[in-house]
Amino acid sequence: MKGDKTVYVCTECGYKNAKWYGKCPSCNEFNTFEEDVVPSEKAQRKSPVSSMLRAHSTKLDGLETPDYIRVGSGMDEFDRVLGGGLVSGSAVLLSGEPGIGKSTLLMQLCGTVGNDERVLYVSGEESGSQLKLRAKRLGVTASELFVLNETNASNIIAEIDDIQPSVVIIDSIQTVFADISSSSPGSVTQVRESSMLFINKAKAEGFSLILVGHVNKEGGIAGPKVLEHMVDAVLYFEGEKQHSYRIIRAVKNRFGSTNEIGVFEMTERGLEQVPNPSEAMLRERPKNVSGSCAVCVMEGTRPIITEIQALVTPTVYPSPKRTANGVDYNRMCLILAVLEKRLGLHFSQHDVYLNVTGGIYLSEPASDMAVCLALISGILDRALPDDFITFGEIGLSGECRSVSHSEQRINESARLGFNKIAVPKRVSDVKAPQGVSVHGVNNLFEAIRIPQLFVKKEENTVKDDG
After folding, report:
1. How do beta strands 16-17 and 33-38 pair?
2. CA triple 278-280-283, angle to 5 deg
């Protein structure tokens, strides 16, 4: 009888081959092959007992609607992303770059949940004294919080049976190994087998499971791609280390929406919730400065207002420089081409630097209009009114296309003091609050002709290009 055989698996797409490749033939990624062990035919053969205990089909009408019990984490922003709280018997995968604040968030979560529910925090990377220091720094005092320093999955399962927790946190899954496999911790086999043990245990016992996952060099979750399909929710902890704001985004959620985000601010006391991100991001916005335009984007059901800044300067090199931070680079180049072709603005002779304040990444097309007006303001060196805001998608012919949730965007803009709003023509009939003027535009030509839109700065002598 043949024994176990070794294959190599791509951690990005799951492609398998008996030989190791430097570049995956399927997804063309480099250095993604890891060794995996395939059990022998004898181990894969079904036993008579497993055949006797097989599952049977049931009519859909005979199934009962489950009444999932949610455990509130005590952090509204975290509960918002999960859809209302941690679901009993569910598995959540939390991922983020090193040092982004995953362990800080989980320790604060233990402090809010650990007073009412029993929590088991399993750390495979830090000692108990390190966890104690972090808890002391964050002011976490939980009477029902248990800490375990262990990397053997069997020992962790035994500890779960002993204390019967309501929430189990594994930090991180890449450090845990299972005895059923001889590969090293962090390999494809170990991550898959260890995760399956914990997920099956959570669904059988009914406790909430949170797995912490490392990220690879591309920013995705390290390990086999099947891990994301095994869990019920996948959360990404985003944000720049140089910025204080952190965002939790759900890319998969079986018990809630995947459009919601949670906003936090990293402080000396740990992560603090930001219930109103718009006010926080506009707090330090400069006045009467060219190249600045406010925009309202939707993150799930929440409208968020942020600032887009554009710096346009003449270049001395034959090839101008382009830099985009917070906006897709290719999208910025497309908008520059539209402005140059349709409006005749010579961006090909200027360096362009585009930035979104607060470290937020704008992927919604509704930010196109604000990017255009910020670039126009930058090249003309004329400031937009401080109470002006816009949103809308721009097409290749310069037309302004409508976007969803226009009424919510207008109301949020008016609440924060923006009295002049430029919107696509199709949504201009939305009822606006008193004192707010809504300008409906069909294209960029109509947008730049809004009365008193570009204000000439008094301290500078601006040369009008006509």
Report:
1. unpaired
2. 105
Under DSSP, is residue 150 helix (H, G, I), strand (E, B) or coil?
coil
Say whether pLDDT at 131 is over 80: yes
Longest dimension (CA), the chain: 89
What pLDDT score does 459 carry?
45
Give the residue among 242, 225, 246 at the shortest CA–CA distance from 234: 225
47, 92, 102, 157, 301 from 257: Cα distances, Å: 41, 14, 21, 31, 10
Q: Is 447 exposed, middle or buried (0-12, 13-18, 19+ CB in 10 A)?
A: buried
Tokens of 154: 């069997």
Indicate the SS3 state at residue 360: coil
- Report the alpha-carbon distance of residue 152 to residue 157 in Å, rounded: 9
pTM beyond 0.85, yes or no: no
Cβ contact 377:292 at 8 Å: yes
> How many other C-beta atoms are found inside a 10 Å radius of the C-beta of residue 150?
16
Nearest to 241 by CA among 82, 79, 104: 104
pLDDT digits (tens, 9 = 90+) for 11-52: 777 788 888 889 988 888 888 888 777 665 554 444 444 444
Q: Which residue has the tokens 């949730």?
A: 405
pLDDT value for 33: 84
Question: What H or E segment, with its residue span, contains residue 225?
Answer: none
**Which segment, 267-281, 302-316, 353-367, is predicted with the most confidence on average?**
302-316
Phi, psi of 309 (to 5 degrees): -115, 135
| 3-class state of residue 282 by DSSP | coil
Residue 224 pLDDT > 70? no
Do 174 and 185 form a contact (C-beta atoms < 8 A)? Answer: yes
The alpha carbon torsion through 377, 382, 387, 392 (nearest 10 deg) reads -20
Q: How far is CA 90 from CA 74, 152, 268, in A?
A: 18, 22, 32
C-alpha 148/C-alpha 308 separation (Å) is 46
Distance, CA of 282 to chain centre: 21
> Would you call the peptide bond into 51 cis, given omega within 30 degrees of 0 as the criterion?
no
Asked if the model's pLDDT at residue 431 lies above 90, the reply is no
Tokens of 441: 């535009």
Give the residue-averaged pLDDT of 225-241. 84
**Would you state the structure tokens that stand for residue 18, as one six-digit string?**
């008996």
Above 60 in pLDDT, residue 101? yes
Q: What is the mean pLDDT of residues 209-227?
A: 72
pLDDT (average), residues 75-103: 90
